[in-house]
Amino acid sequence: MDSEENHDTAYISTTNACKLCKPLGACLAFRGVEGAVPFLHGSQGCATYMRRYIISHFREPMDIASSSLGEKQAVYGGGPNLKQGLSNVMKKYGARLIGVATTCLTETIGDDVPGIVREFRQEAQGEEPAPAEIVTVSTPSYSGTHMEGFHAAAKALVKQLAEPGEPTDAINLLPGLVSPADIRYLKEILEDFGLPGIILPDISETLDGPAQLDYEKIPAGGTPLASIKAMGRSRATLECGRSLLGQETAGRWLETRFGVPRYALGMPIGLQETDRFFKVLEETSGRAIPSLHALERGRLLDAYVDGHKYLFNQRAVVYGEEDLVVGLTSFLAEIGVQPVLCASGGKSGHFQEAIAEVTGEIAPEPPLVMEGADFYEIAAAAEGLAPDLIIGHSKGYKMAQTLQTPLIRVGFPIHDRFGGQRLLHLGYRGAQQLFDRLVNAVLEKKQQDSAVGYGYL
Amino acid sequence: MEPAIFVERKNQIHRKGEAPFDLECDKESLAGAVSQRACVFCGSRVVLYPIADALHLVHGPIGCAAYTWDIRGALSSGPELHRLSFCTDLQEMDIIFGGEDKLYKALTELIVRHQPKAAFVYSTCIVGIIGDDLYSVCKRVGQERGIPVLPVQSEGFKGNKRAGYHAACQAMFQLMGTGDVSGISSHSVNILGDFNLAGEIWVIRKYLSRMGVTVVANITGDGRVDDLRRAHGAALNLVQCSGSTMDLAKMMEEAYGTPHIRVSYFGVEDMAESLYAVARFFKDPEIMERTQALVREEIAALTPQLQKFRAALSGKKAAIYVGGAFKAFSLVRAFRLLGMQVVLVGSQTGTKEDYQELHDITDEGTIIVDDSNPLELSSFLKEKDVDIFVGGVKERPIAYKLGVGFCDHNHERKECLEGFVGMLNFAREVYNTVMSPVWRFVPRKAAVDMHNP
Fold first, then answer.
1. pLDDT tens for residues B386-422?
2. What is the DSSP letter of B199?
3. CATH code reported for the domain at B188-293
4. What is d(CA B268, CA B302) in angstroms, rounded to the nearest whole number?
5. What gap in Å lies between CA A238 and CA A449, rounded to an integer?
6. Is B158 in contact with A85 (Cβ distance < 8 A)?
7. Please, what CATH class does the domain formed by B40-175 belong to?
8. Cβ pair B443:A88 closer than 8 A
9. B188-293 and B314-414: identical CATH topology
10. Fewer Cβ close by (within 10 Å): the C or N end of chain A?
11. ipTM of the assembly?
């Protein structure tokens, strides 16, 4: 082997990234707003690549408009293309909101997007149809991951749309990047608590819609514009994601600007994180947990007991977005699975700490935590840790195949299985599904590895 | 409701028979129109990607690498370095101070780690803007490491996919003429413009071998750097998917006098004609005899199997929207063989000549469209009441949302659709989607049934 291979220095390049780029996250967030069209200010390829990537997971249309900059615009500025694009999207799509995210190209050539949009609005005054709301967010792909883009877009939405006024009874819920099924379930929970909720963003219908007679230019659903405007008047904000600690998020901005109290929570995955979530709902609603959910909690616990021996001391590798990994790790630790490696391509600076918080006194030993990691590094570390289970999205399949270890698919993207948009992760119900899948993965492996052919396990 | 077609785009749409044919094409995409096109980088990446023993390093932000990681069905019979996604993952500081240093280190460490036969370094939008000198870094690393390190000038904004094909061809051309050509048979070819999706190039190679023709280089499906280096020793270039590798064929013709012929391996007629064209080129009666026997044998085996599909599919309507127009020619003929009618055909990057040919081979009333978008495509699908739409991943949800069958004919597909066997697979794919009972429940059909119980 070449001597240079033995250097113990970190690699400067990335091999098989465990992250996506910032504008993709912004597009996903904008897709969760009623009447909105995501719009990328950049070259045509960005929009097309992201569309393909998102479509392959959700199996739904995902129209992302682009200002389609060419060489000339890259030199002289993309303003005219941006304006023409905005006008075209309004006319053809009938957009009520256009979420404009920048790309590395337009960030670097120095286009002043808010300024161009201001000009556009002035020029469009009095025109029919009435111009759409335009929300802009800066998402250069060379910093952060899709999650930073997602949160930046959510913050841009409230910052540019929320208005002061009379307080309402509503609760703002900022769940982070979760599945359409998760959001449908969150809505159900809020309803059962009698809480008028504003979930931002809400991709429950826009990225998991019914069969249609016509191609809907903009899929129905999404957080209503009026609701986003009213978020500064809500009674509280619940913001999920332990890695968001200390960051200027949508929830924090609503707190500083409008004094909306903010409850910072982890993603409600597993029993304990969900208990914390429900406790806040009990507090804010003044109601005890509705019986349906108490029952679901009870059944979950019952399942924990029934299945505990299958899972105890199983070693797990978990990867993906930081907040998802923290939630999953909390869940794994409480069911007796030992998280041996928690990895993310993200680098919020709070990952290690958040993992320590959720594993601290319950896990027998702290897991190896890798932030800013790629799959080459994750696979190399995993190999030495001899995991029994791997938990994450589709891009870890190669590693799972090499290690001959079951992969339990969660999160985004699911590109090699069907129904990723309908996977449930959150709450007691989501924990139940995850728990069943984990136990069954262990049983399946046992059955596969045995020549006996047990039909009764 | 606002009609789906932009005024600016109306000359890029033609309905055969309604007016003299004069389709506009080769234009920049209209801002805000949600074009199905990709970028220059995409064009280069798809062409070079299948070269399996080369290192493919994306010099740019992570997205460009992440979205092109192992998404194609381009198989390799040996090394699989192409299936890894390498990126310099440029960060803010690199943008400010320049990315050359990072590129140098990234290239060096990856070459040491993976020992590739060559490296391709893809430029992205951002690199074009910050002005990194890709050439000098590549040259330096190439000298230090003793392998070809080839810059690919694929800045995303510098045109569309076709510009990317050209950049890829230029990069590959650098390799040619550097390998030993001794011992290459006079009855030899290079296969250009086939990417070995689902093992397709292996099917074609087998046909050629049965004919007595040897293959020097696969360009690029199941491709190898050393084969590319000696590709100039082949007697003939077979160029499929003319958009992507025709430039390379022309460069080789000019530099090495290698003649080329255009071929297509899709559909029975085009497949057979392509093999005959090869046989005719070599002017060897034995090759021609073997070719005739091969085609006879394959068609005899295929025809009875196609009957069932043809009987069921006859009279159904198809729509086609693909990247390059060349593939559409074969698809029109393949559908005709199944007794089906093509009512819409379009492409992202077709040329004037391509569209003229499409116009000539399609029926009256067929819609021909350049650089379309979801709103147009969905309105055409509805208007023509089609039974199947052929396209790629981005076209799939348009079809499915409307309750229309779909066949993936793009780079992501995992079905072998080339050769005589490919025609059978294609027919089966079309049959499987068109004949599914699920359509009777979708709103489009349910609404019709409600009126005609």
1. 999 999 999 999 999 999 999 999 888 889 999 999 9
2. T
3. 3.40.50.1980
4. 9
5. 45
6. no
7. alpha beta
8. no
9. yes
10. N
11. 0.95
